[in-house]
Amino acid sequence: xxxxxxxxxxxxxxxxxxxxxxxxxxxxxxxxxxxxxxxxxxxxxxxxxxxxxxxxxxxxxxxxxxxxxxxxxxxxxxxxxxxxxxxxxxxxxxxxxxxxxxxxxxxxxxxxxxxxxxxxxxxxxxxxxxxxxxxxxxxxxxxxxxxxxxxxxxxxxxxxxxxxxxxxxxxxxxxxxxxxxxxxxxxxxxxxxxxxxxxxxxxxxxxxxxxxxxxxxxxxxxxxxxxxxxxxxxxxxxxxxxxxxxxxxxxxxxxxxxxxxxxxxxxxxxxxxxxxxxxxxxxxxxxxxxxxxxxxxxxxxxxxxxxxxxxxxxxxxxxxxxxxxxxxxxxxxxxxxxxxxxxxxxxxxxxxxxxxxxxxxxxxxxxxxxxxxxxxxxxxxxxxxxxxxxxxxxxxxxxxxxxxxxxxxxxxxxxxxxxxxxxxxxxxxxxxxxxxxxxxxxxxxxxxxxxxxxxxxxxxxxxxxxxxxxxxxxxxxxxxxxxxxxxxxxxxxxxxxxxxxxxxxxxxxxxxxxxxxxxxxxxxxxxxxxxxxxxxxxxxxxxxxxxxxxxxxxxxxxxxxxxxxx
Length: 566
Fold this sequence. Notes:
The chain is α+β, with helices and mostly antiparallel strands. The chain is built from 19 helices and 14 strands. The strands form 4 sheets. The protein has a 5-stranded antiparallel β-sheet, sandwiched between helices. Strands 1, 2, 3 and 4 form a 4-stranded mixed β-sheet that branches. It starts with a helix and ends in a 21-residue tail after the last helix.
């Protein structure tokens, strides 16, 4: 009895489930049917060429591009025009025919666009089966694919293929109507020059790779013309310099911009000849365009930085003595801050140049750069390579703004008395007292301690240490010391002068004479005079003392000679 009741309850639950799920299942079937319809642009009529020629393979993006390029290689423009949606094309008498448009589009693709064949799907729905699941378009059907980009009037114009369907027809992939309408304008910019069109037909035939025979001949000629222009620029600037006095500003500026101007002449002439006479095509163009832009940018930035560096160095070198003067703290602060600003401007110019290069050269679309960049490899390489350089730049800016070592400051570095002559990107240039130049890494001045003798007060206590005999009468030396302190013009505070014994051993005692000078440069000269004066005084007192056991001032070496007999 209980089993029958359970069976009836189970049947009732099953019936309710079927009654509820039935409409939902029907709705799901309708949704699937709706989603399975082709993802296309619906058009009233597909207006394309082709005529009576055999049709192209327009079922998939890969088939469209392969069959169109193959027809173009054979010069079968009637057949190639079947791949063009001509709905937006001007049909007036002076307009290009479908065959002409097909020929121009093929030439544009062959010359200027690097087709990424691996990214073209060979499926009617254009689903990308090679992407990862993280891609938001993974598994999604597409009805439009961009083949490449070209620049027109400072805007980017895509060359696009689209999937269209006319009523009662199968969906087909063709070049979109807007891309076809843009072909005449793009061809006028990127197509062959009048010079190339005037060349004999054999020279316009393909030689190897994507180069025509005229391109194989023209490329060395372009390089020769650019090299000739660079040589003329180099010798012209050199001759101009020799006519000027070396102390003039113009001479220094010409010397600074000599090499960057030569590079600009080479790259500018190369670009001008290419644009005017020889429009190279294909991968060669994709390689030369960024390289040409890099050279031009490097030359322009080099000229700007060379002029800035020269003017700054000219100003500081002409004021070296004044910058090192004890009372000239304001100028030292000013030129040190200007040095930091110069480095910041340099860094900004370099970053702006790199940014302009990446934007203007469209390198991400021409060389597959975006594939590497998407993996982060480029970023890691650049960061690792620039880590030390950026650290040095920040160190130089830190030194300049913190003013731990200003231009013109006297410092004591590695046992040498030096003046700071220049704060560079990676080093400090120091000038020693005997006019030598010491190149010191910036890290030594940010991570290690050093002595700055003119940071706060340029005055300096100079000291002379003399080793005297233990029997010397120090009080007898104080009188000539006072005479020196009172009479020498570089002693600024006679009351600070000190004579004291600072050490002693079995051989001699060390006496130190300390005097304050106005600045390190005057202090060094005064230091030498004080040493000479006190040595002369000690010698006079020693000579006047006579022989032992009278007091002696200069230490004596005692020798014991033992004569061995027999």
